[in-house]
Amino acid sequence: MAAVELHEIEKSFGSTAVVKRLSLEVKEHELLALLGPSGCGKTTTLRMIAGLERPDRGVIRLAGRLVDDGKEFVQPEQRGLGMVFQSYAVWPHKSVFENVAYPLQLRREQNVEAKVMEALGWVRLSALAQRRPHELSGGQLQRVALARALVGRPKVLLLDEPLSNLDVALREELRGEIASLRATLGTTMVLVTHDQGEALALADRVAVMNKGVIEQLAEPDVVYREPGTPFVAGFVGGANVLEGVVQDGRFIVEGQSFELPPRTAVTPGPVTVVVRTEDVAVGGTGPALTLQAKLFLGSTTEYRFALGQQVLRSTGPAIDGLKPAQAAAVSFRAVRLFAR
Q1: Second label for 99, Cα 20 to 30 Å away, from 47, 214, 273, 333?
Q2: pLDDT for 48-59, tens place per residue?
Q3: What pTM value is reported for the model?
């Protein structure tokens, strides 16, 4: 039985359709990421699962239980869910302990102190139980929010861009915390994010959303290596997305002719070609393009070449002697073609 089921969900705000006939299943103990740009409908989808928004039409079930079909509606607090918001939503007048205890107290549960201290142990905040929010860092505040959402052992934990307010170092640390908590507790999780690295690192499956629909739903490595659409390719991993023509087995774009790699399924005519930056080879055969910029990225270097009105990006080891304004031969190691 799926932990979450959405069947042909639709949601509009005024005349703007935000979610369009979306169907999705989240498996038990799975972490599924809803990934996409701002305005694609991912947060609205999460809020409909939580019961904070009502779909215009469609059916939502949690563990087989109907919670919304336009007629029947189960209130958010009765759905057995936990939710972590982007803004922490920690009460400033309550201590860490009191913040985490609050949902248990609302439900008049027993052994509150033991349950709260156990939850604080999960997020390594046991020693800070009596501190106030103004005495905590951003990462610690988000841990408080995680503990509060998990203390009641929810069937599903909903995460609405929980790391976007943190700096890079804290984001990476909290990413590890979420992965560790999931391994410890086995909680089903739905994560909303616009950060492709976060989605690829944490999720069992990624649903890439665009303009209210899911463009691809697959395991992270499949989404990255075998993007189902040009949008997915460009959004996940930042591939080069080039529009041109296949003619005589070659790809023509912006007046340049590129040899297609062996075993490429060739479709003559107008195409969109997707090339990962690591699959753009600099040197050897291929048309000579002018280098516009060279960016040092630590373990790799990014090279940006002028391709007519477009930019062709390549990442790889640093190339001695290659400087901006110089020309270098560029070729493709692997591509994906989409007929237009």
Answers
A1: 47
A2: 999 999 999 999
A3: 0.89
